[in-house]
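Before relying on records like the one below, remember that each one covers exactly one chain. Contacts with other chains, cofactors or solvent are not represented anywhere in the record.
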Amino acid sequence: MKRKVPEFHSDEEAAAFLDQDLSDLDFSQFKPAQFEFEKKAAQINMRLPKSLLDAVKRRSAARGIPYTRFIREALEKALTEDRRRGRSATGSRR
């Protein structure tokens, strides 16, 4: 049976844990994380129906992230899916 990764309360606990054989750990409890390195220098201002903004805020709260990050992730996902389908950022086929 695989071991769960314990919760650590200090860097020292985490470092000590890493000094052992980790091959029997259950990594299914982890979720992928995205790191944002690019500077956010541009701003937008948009009007949305209140019901849409409320739905975005509920969904982002359920994920535990700010709603502005949720909107940015949705935009990035839409553009990534377009690229996979062979569409440019303008929507035309390449």
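Residues 82 and 91 are 8 Å apart (CA to CA).
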